[in-house]
Amino acid sequence: MSVTFDILLLLFLITTALAVARAKDLLAAAIIFSSYSLVMCLLWQHRGAPDVAMTEAAVGAGITTVLFLVAIARTTRREK
Amino acid sequence: MQSFFWGVGIFLLVNAFACLWRASAGPTVVDCILAVNIIGTKTLVVLVLLALVFGRAMLLDIALVYGLLNFVITVTAGRLLETGRLAGDQS
Amino acid sequence: MKTTQATTVLFAFWLVLTGSLGPLDLALGVVLSLVLGVWAARFLWPQDAPALSPRQAVRLLLYIPRLLASVLMAALQVAEVVLDPQMPIDPVIIGHRASFSRAVSRVAFANSITLTPGTLTVDVDAETFYIHCLAERFATDIATGDLERRISHVFEE
Amino acid sequence: MISTADIRDATTVVLAAFGALFFLVGTIGLLRLPDFYARTHAATKCDTVGAGSLLIALAVFNGLDASTGKIIALAGLVLLSSPTTGHALARAAHRTGLAPWHAEKGRTP
Amino acid sequence: MLAWPHWLVVVVLVPLLGAVLTPVVSLRSRHVAPWWALGVMSVTSTAALFLILRVAAEGPFSYLPGGWVPPYGIELRFDEFSASISVICLIGWLAVLYSLRYVEWLREVPKQRIPYYYSLLLLNLGGMIGFVITGDLFNMFVFLEILSLSAYALVAFSGEHIAEMAAFKYLLMGAISSLLVLFSVGILFGVTGSLNMADVATRLASAEPVAPAALALGMLTVGLMVKAALFPVHIWLPDAHAIAPSPISAVLSGLVVKIGIIGMIRVYQIYNSANMIDLHMLNQTLVWLGAISIVMGAFFAIFQDDIKLMLAYSTISNIGYIVMGLGLSTNSSIIGGSAHVFNHALIKATLFFAAGGLIYRTGYRTLTDLRGIGRSMPLTCIAISIGAISIVGIPPTAGFFCKWYIALGAFEADQPFFGFALIFGALFIFIYYIRMVNAFYFQAPTRPEILEVEEAPASILFPTLLLAVLCLTVGPIPLTFIKPAAELLLAPLGG
Amino acid sequence: MLQALWDNLDYVAPVVLFCIGLYIIIAKNNLIKKFLGLNIMETAVFSFIIALGVVDGGDAPIMGADARAPFASPVPQALVLTGIVVAVSTTALALSLIIRIYRQCGTIEADELREME
Amino acid sequence: MKKAFVAALLIITAIPLLIGVAALPPHGETTAPVHTHISARYLMRGAEEAGADNIVTGVLLNYRGLDTAGEVTVIFTALVAGLAVLITRRKEPGAKADSAARGDVPAPPPVSPVVSFVVQLLAPFIALFAVYVILNGHVTPGGGFQGGAILGALFIALTIVLGEGRTRSLMPRLALPWMQGAALISFVVVGVLGAGLTGYFLGFPAEASLHLVRELMMLVLEAGIGLGGAAIFATLFLQMEAE
Known about the structure:
heteroheptamer; D: about 80% helix
């Protein structure tokens, strides 16, 4: 079961990364990136690294995303 | 019980995977934000499941962190979408 | 009053977090919840504090089961809609006027609307709540002012 | 022989399955419903119920100890934040002029 | 004093703490910031002096923060290569002094930013010092990040039109290269289970699978190559170095790109002593890349009119010399290459300082506009000329000895072709510096007003002239100093 | 080879993510998008380093009453914690630069910026 | 053309990486060098030697304390760099009437009262939770940096709902640089204290009689990192938002 879970998480990660690549709207890309970080956090929790998981949840999914959002607010949302 | 929890975890993950399609396909950005928020809720539950599977109560803190930040991000993104600015001006 | 309540609730939260009754943890918890309680009451909630009198707190506790029941109903109703191949919905946005004197009741009202079957608060003006309904029939409970009365019963009196 | 542990496990399984079911409904709703507002309905309600009942299931399984409080706090957080985010997003969509879908026209006007 | 063990941690933490406190001390008045930075650099230089005296007296030594024995804790290690902190401190100190007037003069820069400039400069210098003296792979990465991040911001500091773009280009490539370094530190940790360089070297010798270690080596090389701006990945350098404020250009060109080289030296030392991978092919590649860099850099420099852009291209070609020297891996070429790390720092800092002086006084930065400046700013132009002959490699200047040793190494290694490439490159370099000197002294001014300008102010002139004098005199010193270290490079680490 | 890749799936997935990130950096024009790509790359490397320290059935390296061996190695986790901080710092600086670039040039598309130079 | 180039570059990146990682010691086995060398000692003796049940915190603060000092310097660098890039002339102290200069831009509409209320309701709880994460880093997952990030996120959320004016008062001008530098300053203070006690910079006394001191030193470090991190994130956010 654990292995299935692991593989599913890895697949999920790759899919989210591709979704980030695909998104035309930068806001959508940044938000999907936050869910990428979140899945990463899940993966690390599963791998026995709760400290890193928490950091990723707080920093990767939280602060980084918010910084991206500010940058998008200050520039433009559309990718040409 | 362990395998039941794993099963539930995998089931939720598959669900989240399905939500990802909505996040990616849109059609509007709000859909994307909503979908990601939902992925967040599902994943939060998976985090709690993992904490119980591993039998370490302290891992619940991570779920709590994520729950809070998921809320903050969604609100921020909604605000950005609504006004194009972030800081409010309520004097 | 506000400060005491906030401090108490925060201290309870601290106990939940640490889950320990060691003297050091307890002392730290008291100090921290005092500081944060004062900060919250003075800085965050200068006007519309979410503080409740004991009677209101009891009513809130009585209201929560009703709310949970209606959330359950709401979820079942969504399931009904979603699993029906025809998807019997006809969404409308309606405006509903409701006057509350406290922010906490407005928020409770808005969130209760969102959690009751078929309705979703879209926007809140000073008095008017714009509500998205999956179908006209779901709005009856709100239009009759039933929900509004319940909320004011809990928070306003 | 039915021990308390069995009752506990059974309750957990039932509640968890119930929660998972609602998560599934929420997902289907998110994928199937025609427009953003309708999807928000599905998302907020089903997620609140799903997460809530799953978390309660886990709390029951965990028994009564310090971490149960945390699980309950999480459930409370979900109960509070889920409708709020739903509202925030709906408001954002409304203010940016996203019109709701109407059944008779079958498309967004 | 000499035996006080804590100098090694003082020398890295004082600039960093000084940087953190810079915004604090300049709360009341921003004019305190430069003097504060100068004081911090003075303390650092004192510490560096004691360290160098100690290493000269008793050879390499180390310090263990936290008191944990090496593989378990971090080790700060001071050896002969670490003596390059002398150059870092010297140029850093002079750059702070130089900035005193220069930064105030930059028109695009809001005055509020200025304390942050000194803070960033101190962080940059502290990061470099830390990078040079650490004996731990991951600690090296951390210091690499401190110095790179501050370098990116310093490039953007001038606020000119394309400064931010240049900085962004630098940042993007720099971030990818740091990532490669981190990746390979991870792989090395996976293969050996250790992070201490000496320990990694001994454990790598017995490590079973060769492929991951080779991959780590390749990625480290590429990553550090980007930092050093070697040929295929040099594209960030010209813009960044030309657009930065002149004291920063001196620090970047003189010191920061050398960090990549010093990192390579450290890494190859690990692999050399582990002796598990035949480095011959890699070395050959490096020699080729070095040769191409020499020729390319010199070739592009010829066509530049902007003096700072010209100097920036010249940096690429000089990095080529150093890398070629290391890649040839004979005794004398390594000595020449590593000595050039020191000497080129001095020379390039002289040139950028002098160029900055010209720009400060005239406001022009192209050769066409600066024609005839030699008459009104004689001292600065003499400094430029000294730098020019030194970088071409005319005896008895600093540049000569290094290039001589590298060429010697090429013939020693039986690859005379590269010796000729080196001489060919020197010829190119000669052409463009002659062009510069010619414009300053012998051509009629296109802008008559530059004949009226005064000599640069003392805080700008003093660093320039001091470095010029050093270019003329200290050339052979690094050679003698580096010899034992270079022999170490070919021998196992940690004895 | 394929068998080895399958066995080391936890190392291979980060490589795939790394390449996706690299693809975004090279192929996309938008600077913010490029930086999202860089963040993906960074996270991929972190995930690789974490995978190095994993033990099958291992527990989190936190001692206490409910801890039971074997434990995952703590060193990679410490490294990654530092790495995450470095990554967020780089991102913050890059985004500040992007904001300034947009202020000055009115665009954050790499090709348009190149034309402007 | 460009597509071919991208594809080629990706392939020449991917193939060596795959070959390299495929040959690494098998994943998840305890015999790998990662587990047998330094980690083994950390796990075996870390809890008593470093004084933290959470070995990761022990490694971060004690065994590899200098790395963490570097890490907090990196984030401070990011702050200074961000400020150096973002401060523009418009915000000079003379031009205090900032809002007048921006008069043509209409004030943004307020946040939905529901969101605003919920955020304000949750704020003290989030703050308490952040402090808990900071102070319990040595026994549970978490620590200064994570808690600091949560505090920073809280600050950002409050700024969004309350506006910049009211949250600024949390960061008084004179104390702000101290708060931003708190992390490295606390490292230096603790490091010097450690040098006095053990003879090594950043050394933590291991004697049983000084365990309380060691605990206190760790708490100071964690609190410093948390405060510094929060202040830095908050400042960066405000600066980027105000640009």
